[in-house]
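Hey,

The postdoc asked me to send both predictions to you directly instead of through the lab channel. I've kept everything plain text so nothing gets mangled by the mail client. Protein one:
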Amino acid sequence: MKSNRKIIFLIGFLFAIPLALTSYINSSFLATYLGEYYVGIVYVIASVIAIICLLEMPRILTRFGNSSTILFFTMLGFLSLMTLAFIHNTFLIVLAIILYFIATDLIIASMDIFVEDFSKNSGIGKFRGLYLMFINLAWVVAQMISGSIIAKNSYQGIYLFSAVFIILIAVIFVLFFNGFIDPKYTKVPILKTIKVFIKNKSLSKIYLINLILKFFFAWMVIYTPIYLHEYLHFGWEQIGLIFTIMLVPFVLVDFPLGRLSDKIGEKKLLITGFLITILFTLIIPFISAPLVWIWAIVLFGTRLGAATIEVMAESYFFKEVREKNADEISFFRNTYPLSFVIAPLVAIPVLHFAPSFKYIFFVLSAIMFTGLLLVLRLRDKK
């Protein structure tokens, strides 16, 4: 059991490397083929399909098992990345981006089953916090190297490098998790799952809080690289350095705050996280100087708050459910693709009517404020 836990942490780290390498360049890469206003539409299409797949996750897991499911989606992710690395046809590029987005979402959902199974005899907040710490450490490492890879090999170099990690993950699963005993997955109609969330006020509130957080991530992932690169004219190596510093809070706070939440609950820390995120997001539109250290500090602040929200939301939710509740877990995980539907649909009219691109950050801070209002009505789980 302990060795499997270590392997899960290793897989989480290895999977986060390609996810981090590609997340902040996909929008800019797509923009070179489609233009920045059409990038959001691709994310909407990919996200809608991913949500449908997540809703079918219990049926997929029951038929094929979690090990086979995650192996299939790692191979789909690998093929998508290889397409992005070597093909220059616009249609195939868009298709590969969509398939890669779907594959990574389903891998994350499958990983949740393993993580939840291996955390049975541990403090959930502590275990989740440690798992998130390894994942976010990978995000920091990825941003340290992403700028130099793009500078030397363009976007295609990032996709090829990411493909190597994806195939390595597939090999590890074949070697260590073929004998995984799946819990009994119960397929519950989606309307019934929604009713479960509505009836359980704690679940519904933490779902909405997580959706708002994922909305923040989606908005930042799609539009921050475009803003820094196209409007402030930062080079990719500079952006890589900024994003490296920006992501450090996720490594620093996940594990200690996860442990702390097991003792004092999540509500106070969620309030703190939202206040910090709102404050630093509001600062962004007032910065016009393309200075690396200023942007690194401000974006560091936004992620210090977001990292706090993330680990608290994870801890709170998984104190409510267990690994057999695949429907609830899949529904909770649909916040990520759903955010990539909502964020572009909100951003497109904002970009059209706002006086300048930077006004999108005012809108984002206002949306984060709604999350704070939800937290104030939340009851702690200890």
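Protein two:
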Amino acid sequence: MSEIDLLKGLDHVVMEVSFALAPLLLFFIFFQIFFLKLPRQKIIDIIKGVILTFFGLILFLHGVHVGFLPFGEAMGEKFAALPYKWIIIPVGFVLGFVATFAEPAVRILNYEVDKVTAGYIPQRLMLITLSIGVGFSIALSMARVIYDLPLMYFVIGGYGIVIVMAWFTSETFTAIAFDSGGVATGPMTVTFITALSLGIAGAEDSGRSAIDGFGMIALVALAPILSVLTLGVLYKFKENKSSQ
């Protein structure tokens, strides 16, 4: 890839990040002047953080457009061309597990859960639970695309199970579970796995369009809820057993 291709679209990314961060920065300045009155050193630290965030978002988003999305689509097309398409299902599980394991938002949630619960729900256990849940959801998404399974069956059935499981776990796990669904659909999962799914759907010879690759994020948002609720049920069962 030439240098010109590598920098193509960078100016648009810079503008998008600038417009996204500017309102937040203006709000902070307003509250700092009239309400917060933070000390000088704290202001300096916040400014450093904003600068790092600005350049970090630019590098990440540009990297997504230049390499992440094209690579995911190309990978999906290659998998779809294989004579044994079932291999995409276990591969999807592995990719979903790894993507969630590297998801920054998931790490932050796990840290906060560990801190608030004083180690009752460890970071490592939450991370593995969420990664396994998302891995299964990606595997199901790949199966749905390959075998042309209706999305509504998974969504309605999945949330029906969620409602039932919520009755058998504590409010703590229920609250954490629904937050987990949001953080799991972060930039790592959405960018690469969505591109992979669209690449597979677009390369299928069944006459379906690449639009069939959408719907995967709905399953990714559902899977962590189910996995955390399952963990909550296991915790409750263990507590009831120890109290007997």
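Summary for protein two, as requested: Residues 1-69 form one domain.

Thanks,
C.
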